[in-house]
């Protein structure tokens, strides 16, 4: 079977030739002696128009086919210079590969994203989700390409872990204990020494701590995989299972970290603009009207940089408009992030040097004794897309901080070791992959950029 993509890419070679294609019927209509099928095979964003005539034996049967039917069409590809599509197939035959019931949920009318979420197994057959998931695939590839071209080693960090990287206690526990009959210690706690791993374990919230170990061997590494957070926040930007890309560089500081993040984002923007032009035009026309202009501006200008302290000064003047009022020491909420990036700077910004109390234990402490070398990258439409930092590379300072925040030291011996055996200054960040896809496509709900979303109260399909 010829792919529809091939017909579009090599149309000169196929014009006036016989071709056979397979695909699913997007729409079908007929008059007395002929009919039209809009056929999509998933290999190309644009569909193929099929014209069929009553000289076909099964004309009457074909006229009655339902949307969603899988068919094999053989016919001649002819140019249609006056029509919307550049060419169509004049069919000699239309064979049914698999019929579709009349109750097929994806009829020609536009369906709301909310409705399509309830049929996440069928939504990849729609225009919007064809575009989203092709861009998602290309973006994953572009990220690998970016880091591989720069010599970064891809490390597969584990998903089951005994540590809590972000220290936020938002972990999904992994256990084989029988919950009806759970073993207890003498003090009455759950006895995890009886569990599969002989201790309490969870799904990872971040691969960073393991990636750091490899950065201290390979210098530049990245990990890219699923991460899990039991955050009880039902927002359009939080998922319980999401993908994160995390580079880590030895002999690098916060400036290097920001340079890498900016180059990476610009690279993936350029990559999808170049490799998914049909999809990107579709988003620009039907999902987010200013998308292409905005992305073109991003690649041709520099990201802005401010410190947390400067950000708070800007935000405090506008406290009236915010639901959550800010002052030095408060964490930034989405409304603050979006105000800064959408209204003050109107482009992506890096906010650096946050108070240590609102950031993770591993961040390098600044000389002021109050802040750490953290950086968040905020983008219009979303807010935080990247969170990163220079890491604390001094053994004693790290240990002291771990004790201050009450961590179980014995679980982090490996992490302290890295500061004992040839410690280097090092830095890295985490890119929320779904947030990156939202940014690239203009889609406004994280549930619509991950194939089978897992969010509070939803683990369907
Ligand atoms: O800022 P976060 O929590 O940083 C870390 O996990 C670091 N260990 C990363 C590192 O330095 N290696 O998360 C990084 C990014 C956020 O900026 C956000 O884009 C995304 O991950 N993210 C989520 N995306 C979807 N759903 C959630 N619940 C998310 N939580 C974080
Ligand atoms: Mg963060």
UniProtKB/TrEMBL annotation:
Q: What is this protein called?
A: Asparagine--tRNA ligase
Where it mainly occurs, coarsely classed, is cytoplasm
Keyword annotations of the record: Aminoacyl-tRNA synthetase, ATP-binding, Cytoplasm, Ligase, Nucleotide-binding, Protein biosynthesis
Query: What residue stretches are annotated with the Aminoacyl-transfer RNA synthetases class-II family profile domain?
Result: 133-451
The Gene Ontology biological process terms listed for this entry are: asparaginyl-tRNA aminoacylation
- What are the protein's GO molecular function terms? asparagine-tRNA ligase activity; ATP binding; catalytic activity, acting on a protein; nucleic acid binding; transferase activity
**Organism, scientific name:** Mordavella massiliensis
Q: In terms of domain of life, where is this protein from?
A: Bacteria
Give the classification, highest ranks. Bacteria, Bacillati, Bacillota, Clostridia, Eubacteriales
Entry's Pfam families?
tRNA-synt_2, tRNA_anti-codon
Q: Name one GO cellular component term.
A: cytoplasm
- Gene3D superfamilies, per this entry? Bira Bifunctional Protein, Domain 2, Nucleic acid-binding proteins
The family line of this record is: Belongs to the class-II aminoacyl-tRNA synthetase family.
NCBIfam families, sorted: asnS, PRK03932.1
Enumerate the catalysed reactions. tRNA(Asn) + L-asparagine + ATP = L-asparaginyl-tRNA(Asn) + AMP + diphosphate + H(+)
């Amino acid at each position: 079977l010829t792919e529809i993509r091939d017909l579009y890419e090599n149309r000169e070679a196929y014009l006036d030739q016989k071709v056979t294609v397979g695909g699913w019927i997007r729409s079908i209509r007929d008059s007395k002696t002929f009919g039209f099928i809009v056929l999509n095979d998933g290999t190309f964003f644009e569909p193929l128009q099929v014209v069929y005539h009553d000289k076909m034996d099964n004309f009457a049967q074909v006229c009655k086919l339902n949307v969603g039917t899988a068919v094999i069409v053989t016919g001649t590809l002819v140019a249609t210079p006056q029509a919307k599509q550049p060419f169509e197939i004049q069919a000699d035959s239309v064979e049914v590969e698999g019929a579709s019931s009349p109750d097929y949920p994806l009829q020609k009318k536009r369906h709301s994203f909310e409705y399509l979420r309830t049929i996440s197994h069928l939504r990849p057959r729609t225009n919007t989700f064809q575009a989203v998931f092709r861009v998602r695939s290309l973006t994953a590839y572009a990220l690998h390409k970016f880091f591989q071209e720069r010599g970064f080693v891809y490390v597969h960090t584990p998903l089951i872990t005994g540590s809590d990287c972000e220290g936020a206690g938002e972990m999904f526990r992994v256990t084989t204990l029988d919950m009806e009959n759970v073993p207890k210690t003498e003090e009455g706690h759950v006895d995890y020494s009886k569990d599969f791993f002989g201790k309490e374990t969870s799904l990872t919230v971040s691969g960073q701590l393991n990636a750091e170990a490899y950065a201290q061997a390979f210098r530049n590494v990245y990990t890219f995989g699923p991460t899990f957070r039991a955050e009880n926040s039902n927002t359009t930007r939080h998922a319980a299972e999401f993908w994160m890309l995390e580079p880590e560089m030895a002999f690098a500081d916060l400036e290097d970290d920001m340079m890498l993040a900016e180059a990476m984002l610009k690279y993936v923007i350029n990559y999808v603009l170049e490799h998914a032009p049909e999809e990107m035009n579709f988003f620009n026309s039907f999902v987010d009207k200013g998308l292409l202009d905005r992305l073109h501006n991003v690649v041709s200008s520099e990201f802005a940089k401010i410190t947390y302290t400067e950000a708070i000064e800007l935000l405090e003047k506008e406290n009236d408009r915010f639901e959550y009022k800010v002052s030095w020491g408060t964490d930034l909420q989405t409304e603050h992030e979006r105000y800064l990036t959408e209204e003050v700077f109107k482009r992506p910004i890096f906010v650096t040097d946050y108070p240590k109390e609102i950031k993770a234990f591993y961040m390098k402490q600044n000389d002021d004794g109050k802040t750490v070398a953290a950086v968040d990258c905020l983008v219009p439409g979303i807010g935080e897309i990247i969170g990163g930092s220079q890491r604390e590379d001094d053994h004693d300072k790290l240990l002291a901080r771990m004790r201050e925040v009450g961590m179980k030291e014995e679980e982090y011996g490996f992490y302290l070791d890295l500061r004992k055996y040839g410690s280097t200054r090092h830095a890295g960040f985490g890119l929320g992959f779904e947030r990156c896809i939202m940014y690239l496509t203009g889609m406004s709900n994280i549930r619509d950029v991950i194939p089978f979303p897992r969010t509070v109260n939803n683990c369907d399909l």
